[in-house]
Fold these 3 entries.
Entry 1:
Amino acid sequence: MLFRYRKRVLARELLFMLAAAIFSLPLYLLVELSLKSPSETARSPLGLPHHLDLSNYSSAWSSAGGGGMGGALLTSLLITLAAVVLLIVFGSLAGYAIARHTSHLSTGVWLLFVGGLLLPTQLGTIPLYSGMRSVGLVGTPVGVVLVYVGQLMPLTVFLLTGFIRALPRDYEEAAHVDGASQLRTLVRVVLPLLRPIVATVAIIDGLIVWNDFFVPLLWLSGSAQQTLPLALYSFVGAFTSQWNVIFAGIVIVIGPILAMYIAAQRHMIRGFTSGIRG
Amino acid sequence: MASAPQPLAAGTASRGARRPARLRRAGAPAASWLFAVPAVLAVLALHYGPTIAGAVYAFTDWSGIGAAQWVGARNFSDLSKDPAARDALWNSLRLALTFVVLANLIGLALALGLNRTLKSRFLLRALFFAPVVVSPIAIGYLWQYILQSDGALNTILAGIGLGGLQHQWLGDPTTARWAILVAMLWQLSGLTMVIYLAGLAAIPDEYYEAAAVDGASAWRQFRKITVPSVAPAIAINTTLGLLIGLRVFDQVIALTNGGPGNATQTLATEIYVQAFTLGRFGYSTAIAFVLTVLIVVMMALRSFLLRQRGSV
Amino acid sequence: METRRIHALKWLAAIATLASLFATGCGSGGSGGGPTTLKVAASFATPADKAALAAVISDFTRTHADIKVNVTYTPIAQYDQVLGTQIAGGNAPDLMYVQPGAAHTTGAIPLAKKGALLDLSDQSWTKRIPASMRGLVTEGGKVYAWPQEISFEGMIYNQSVLDRLKVAIPTTPSEVVTYCRKLKTAGVTPYELYLQDVFGGYQLLYSLVATTVYEKTPDWDQQRMTGKTTFAATPGWRGALQTYLELRDADCFQKSPNGTPISQALAALTTGKAGGTPSVSVVLALAQQANPKGRFAMAPFPGADAGNAVTGGPLTAWAVSARTQHKAAALTFLRYVSDPKVNREIARRAGNIATVDFAALKLPPGLARFVPYLRRGDLHVLPGLNWPAGIQDTTLGPGIQALFSGSQSVSGLLRQLDNAWNAGARR
């Protein structure tokens, strides 16, 4: 019986490994093409590179205009960090308030955020742009951060509220008995319990902000700054596509996020589950 | 310790919230509403406000620059007679529904397979999730490289002797639609997988063992133990899937730009084209209205269907 | 409590760091009485476009110490959206690239009609605008933009391949058929189309209609505008589209034009897998750059046995925002870039033809075959430039894709074009 069990598991293991290998082929292409020159690509498009050719990376790094990829990396980091911090701080405050009330007002506010999820963002672009311009926020990273906070707050509150609701109140009651204020309870008791979930929501928000193209395209146009996606597509021409350099650029853009994901991977999967088990 | 499984409960009232009246009175006070003020202000000022202001343009003939003239509901009546918009609506629906169903099926299958036992499951999970972190535009470029007529796919097919299967994947309207679907599934199945894994991880092994001892078949175990536990994950995944599927933009633009011959134009891309390529901003806002209504209807349908099956 | 104070200090430090990061990030600095800063918006289709403009701007700022230039490059695919939003949001740049004509929502004519552009009729460089191109930057009798570079529509050939196969560049339709046959036998794609990109479909078409439509009716666009004619009623349009399909049936194109983007077509041309590809003249420079050792040539594509014509026109022009606060500086910049020497320099770097050279009939060597057409006056404005916004890329381009995939007929496409034109002209 044990022998049959092991063989079945082994079969499943191999099957999934094969599936993952096929699934990862495009990523393999992405990386191996970024390490080849165009001529080597023409000769052997799918094989492993003969030697690591990092010239594509230096091309991608230096051909982005306006401060280069280095400047874009810094700007992306700045904007993503600020947006995620603001979203998590104010989102968890709001989520806590919504989750711990059961009044009609609570449902109303909840629907406000859910409704925000359903509204398209294109409609508000020009009015928001005009409004921000009149207070001088267009062309600055601050303006970009504010746009993201507005657009992603519904999603953030939606995700966080659900998890806060599912949390048993025992810990908060204990803290209350100990004389802690509500804010203190939130920060010292609830959030640490939900740390993996907060991390997950932060990663989801962070991913969206990091990879976004159109908001910085509109809001940073005319300033000396750009984000990584802008820098990346600044050297994609309409006529020629130097795929090798483009892919190198894409790897540069993914790099920090992928590193963060690998580090946080266990947290993320555990994140959805822990804090909820009895 | 093996209390009733409390898996993801996002969007639902917390289940174990019944407490003896005695304790309830002594419980912690509900959090002050002041906490919610910054977030509410942000959403109202930065999202609702501009959106409502922009929505007004649906009743004008604004071109995007200069003055706007009120035209009442003319944009909407034009829309109802516009075959391109109708095709776009159809494409959006078709794409979103197939995406939601397939993304969930694939995600669930992956989650079930990689839930435990397998030694390499953490590595495999990371591989399936990796595409989620890539930007949608980059995904579009990558898959365009793969699917163009002398791209990687056709090259591989020729290389392994299946040259007869080569096709202009992006140039044929039918395969172009599938191409977009494949690119989206490739990018996002990892996300549904991760959310299902969370739901599955909350089920203690003892449940399955007890059921097996009781003589329950694998299918029965699945229906009675697994499905109720992943119900909240289904809720989240269907919501996200519908929102993403109905709004997809970057992949369509990068892969086919709505072609060939407008075969892959969706409502979201049509909004962009009408506003910025054709200079019919008012009309495009009317299309955005339609898209919003569609989203609301689909979400309501989804809630209805899922509630029927005992989850939310 | 000690720990509480430390805790508070930590928060303060974090906020201060964030704030200082923002301070360095905040863009718009005060202008005061110092140098004027011009905000310039430019689109680009190739990296060479950017390099060309960047070089000119750095020269400009060197010779004009009191003017600083802050230029933003936007990929041409998103330019309509970005510039449109900026203008609508009240944040228009001082100087901007606009496409001459009305084909883009941010083209010279639509913007001028909406009052977004400054009237430049009193500038001296307006004299240098070729008469045939004037209408594309003029609205209500006033000039609103300086057209910077001119492009031709034609066929770009890999001369090395043609020499190897001992085939000459065809100059009549029957020679085209022979050309296709000879290259096909040698295993080289005669003409590589790139219909995957929406602008790919009408390249070859514009070469054909130069002869079949505009040669006979030079003011066809104007006639269509006043409703005196339609696409469906013009045999030249029908004939050109049918020729397109006949060429396909004569095996002149590759097997899968619908799935081929321009990057792939260019690669095929430069590596010798294809003998030619239809495009505008800037692509000639691109091909040469991609393969410096190869020899490339550009020639008109014959639409008839005799009496052929070519189409061409300016694809970029400079305009000034009507709301600019720096009118003097903007006009100085315009005078600078319209100066013949500078004009030539930009064009040379970008691989285009300088407006001043065009007027003087001085074409780069690779375009020598077009000179006779210019001399005879057989150049017509590129179709589409005068059409209502967006029709080329939303109806004609996708329509040709549909034609090739079999889901549209020639009559159907002509009807679609007329419907789109009528809808567009109403706006």
Note: The radius of gyration of chain C is 25 Å.
Entry 2:
Amino acid sequence: MGYTLNFAPVWRDFDLLLSGLGLGLLLAVVSIMIGCGIGLITAFGRLSRHASLRRLAGTYVTAIRNTPILVLILFSYFALPQLGVRLGKIEAFILTLAIYAGAYLTEVFRAGLVALPRGLREAGLAIGLTEWQIKRYLILPVMFRNVLPSLGNNFISLFKDTSLAAAIAVPELTFYARKINTESFRVIETWLVTSLIYVFACLVIAQGLRYLERRLAIIR
Amino acid sequence: MDLGYFFSDLWISRWAILHGLGLTIVISVLAILLGTLLGIVVGLCLSYGHWSLRWLVRIYTDFLRGTPVFVLILACFYILSVIGIQLTPFQAGVFALTLFCSSHVGEILRGALQALPRGQIEAAKAIGLTFRQAFIYVLLPQALRQILPTWVNTAVEMVKASTLLSIIGVVELLLATQQIIARDYLSLQFYFFAGFLYFLLNFAIEKLGRLAEKKVIYHV
């Protein structure tokens, strides 16, 4: 086996990898923020009194969760222009990831909403809050705190999914890794360093989320 | 949109699509089966291994779970050929998916095994079963029953992850679709069609999983 490790080409382009990591994190953050909006609306839709709204929200969740994200990405980048919707690659990717995240977050929020005690809403009504105020000041803050762990897990898996943006040439971490790989042929080094960056980033995010959970925990 | 053209071209390319669909199914089934077998070993090591073994396997699972599947597939595809293991893209892809699946199944199984009441293993010891017998006849059946819903989700994830093999040149459903699109430029219709096929496949898995859950729970 005549292969000697030489990390020099990888270190030389390490700032490229880091900028790719930054873009990946940014894509994940923006997408999960939009996804939270979508997820909240559809979660309320799934718990709505109207059967048609429930069915609509349910169809969205089932359809998106059962379709590979790569197909969705390619669809929004290559097929939407045929319908007259022209998006740049970053916009197309964020749109796709947000819609994808929305489907998973719907289930997270729905579980969070269902798990809230009935007394919460009744207490709000008793002190004279309107339905909107109850949602804004009672339901949402408590629900968000309760679902924070699964929200965090979803964020980590979304961050890992940003690697697929390389398929439509968005310059994030995997894109640069492929570039360094093809330019230098330092195959083992490139992929080892790239995976370690991903693993390290995931660990840091997980620790940060755990800290946030502890900070926000309701003392019982 | 000219649907007549789409349908005539769909008919012309029916064998390419069916072949791709078949390959997608083969890849997914192989990855799920091999990954589950390996995952059971991983879960076993994580739960009952010697502390040094547990530590090693923990690094293995955290590394695999922290790396995006896409990076894993690229890494296996490039690295294995460099260190002298000549695999076809198909084999490298299935290998990567198997590793990924095993880390997830291992982690799920560890959770389920640790959630079993201690009395189970004590009871098994009390009636004189060896550890292997206790595991096979007492612990594993209960744990497998518990992980069934999550395992079905993992199976769906594996089908979705199999699309990534298109990037290393395995002509599964997505790459077959892309080849057709390269010929006729009907990206909207064919991406939608591919997405629909994936949806059907995953939906079927989900429904079968639900059915299996009902069966298993009835027999408790």
Note: The CA atoms of residues 71 and 77 of chain A lie 10 Å apart.
Entry 3:
Amino acid sequence: MIVAGCDVGSLTTKAVILNNTRVISHALIRSSFNPEKSASEVMDMAMNTAGLTMDDIGFCVGTGYGRERIPFVGKAVSEIACHAKGAHWLLPSVRTIIDIGGQDCKAIRIDETGNIVRFVTNDKCASGTGRFLEVMAKLLGLELEDLGKLSEQARNPITLAATCTAWAQAEVIMHLNTNTSKADLASGINQAMAARVAILAKSVGVEKDVCMTGGVAKNAGVVGAMEKQLGVPMRRLKLDPQVMGALGAAVFAKEKMGGK
Amino acid sequence: MFIAGCDVGSLSAKALIMKKGDVLASHVIFAKPEPEESAREVMDKALEKAGLSMKDIAYCVGTGYGRNSVPFADSVESEIICHGKGAQWLMPEVHMVIDIGGQDAKAIRLDDAGNIIRFAYNDRCASGTGRFLEVMAGAMGIALEDMGQISSRAKAPLSISNQCVVFAETEIISLINAGKELPEIVSGLHKSLAHRVAALARGIELDSEITMTGGVAKNSGMFAALEEALGVKLRKMTTDPQIIGALGAALIARQAADGNGKIRTA
């Protein structure tokens, strides 16, 4: 039984194809202005890799901010449910999932069966979302994915006093003018990001095991700072954390087809 | 005896010179990177207008975010106290002051003697401050001071759904791309900021006699939007609302000079 999940986010669009208990392919692209187009494109990529066509897909579930506009899905499910589902499917011991998306952040608590107990989400304030890092990376003239690596070379990480992205931007500019190294800036930025997300996570109650999903989970600087802030290790997932929503959607599709 | 007030804000610096109960001169400049430089330049300009030099000033009070960097200040006072003092001196009936600055917003309640009863303050989130309009003006490629004029042409303000400066900026860009008209967007932004500042003011309970100070008060669209959000007619400042902090500082300087009779020697 082959099923698929497609996650249309604000920044990236992801697809996962599942054959029973095996992920046979996944794909990720930058979202375009058109959610339909992004969804079709990423799905084609994933199917190409797997050597499949749409006729082979038994059922597809859509998720993410553009989930209502995916043409080929049979059902749309919230990102919160999908991230929880995907993470729990890969790592059944997980109880707290912290998902940092391009323009939001969620902390989700689940029970041993994977059901959602509680969640909190921030999509009102850019600080503590992927957008914060995106703005800062641009300011430093870096690619978003270089922030984590660069922060490993930090000697004296800066401390950002402001929470607000707009004020933090002014602070970073001030540091740039005083020739602070980009590594020290990157590390301070990652720590500020983690501090903000940790507050959200604590408000939902952090219970082990804990994992991070979403693109920011690939930033080692943020992950390390989160571990320090929360005092728990972050369990690594055996699949790109950024496709976790799409994986969860695919697991929902499998359940819909009657598979366990 | 001449006294002075100097208000070094995040975006602009203001200086005001008084002789007894009369305002002799005032000046406003855009803030320089160094607050000391802003303070010196704006004070020199105000002194020049008054035909005075620094040695004529018996006492000067510094205020604003850069108040501790005003090299010639004899003492410093918080902006909150200065805005309250300045506004009530001009308009004794006023018991509440709403000040929207370049990177903060304040709501201040005063008693009959101009003392502060309560105040609320936001400098944590840029979206409830003048920075919100500054960022949006930048995104639209218009001048901050033109926003009032532009919004006056709006037929119906748009609703801006994002509060966060960062998210709202993206929203504005997509509204422009979707062919929405600037007046409608700008008046929507005024409404948006007005709602947040009104919520701040409501937190300390409204008084019926309210005025608005700070540079944003010069924006007629913002002034009207705040009246609408508060459901109260605001008292309009009869003088430049941007210099009220410096005025309050000068008034405090007058008290101090009267008290100690100190004459500047430098």
Note: Chain A touches chain B through 13 residues (CB under 8 Å).
